[in-house]
Specification:
This protein is α+β, with helices and mostly antiparallel strands. 38% of the residues lie in helices and 34% in strands. The protein is built from five helices and five strands, in the order H-H-H-E-H-E-E-E-E-H. It has a five-stranded mixed beta sheet with strand order 1-5-4-3-2. The longest helix has 22 residues. The protein is elongated and about 55 Å long.
Length: 154
């Protein structure tokens, strides 16, 4: 795509622009629901079937395959069950939206309850929104740091 065609695609009042704005609105709702711990709203925001990718990590209890909207929304509850809520931090550095796709990058950190160990690192989250619901949730994070924080011992 050339810069000229990108400018045409995103011209205010075009269908592509309205799709991008609708995606942005759903992602902002998703972030607000996550911040508020509103699992019910998260269930509503996820589609019935979700293309969920989060690197499998058998030593991390909140990381597992998920595919339904309810399972995806429950990831937040699982994360809060196994980590210290007041130590959870996430900072979004970039939020890019193009049509139905959104990408957020930033940094996250937390502490595992069972071990008292901390984890931290960069993340990238790719979301796809179709018909007002999240159909894709691909999260890339520092899985080694998280696995080490979940491992017993030093």
């Amino acid at each position: 795509m050339t810069a000229e065609s990108a400018a045409v695609r995103e011209r205010p009042g075009t269908a592509a622009c309205s799709v991008t704005e609708a995606t942005r609105a759903v992602v902002l709702e998703f972030l607000a629901a996550r911040l508020a711990g509103d699992t019910g709203r998260l269930v509503e925001l996820f589609a019935e079937e979700v293309d969920w990718v989060l690197a499998e990590n058998p030593g991390v209890p909140w990381i597992r395959p998920r595919s339904t909207g309810a399972e995806c929304a429950a990831q937040f509850t699982d994360l809060m069950r196994y980590t210290v809520p007041e130590d959870a931090r996430a900072r979004v550095d970039a939020f890019l939206v193009d049509g139905t796709d959104a990408v957020l990058t930033g940094h996250l950190s937390g502490t595992v309850c069972a071990t008292g160990k901390s984890f931290e690192g960069p993340f990238a989250l790719r979301l796809t929104v179709e018909d007002g619901r999240i159909t894709r949730h691909h999260l890339y994070e520092n899985s080694l740091s998280i696995a080490r924080a979940c491992a017993p011992g030093d």
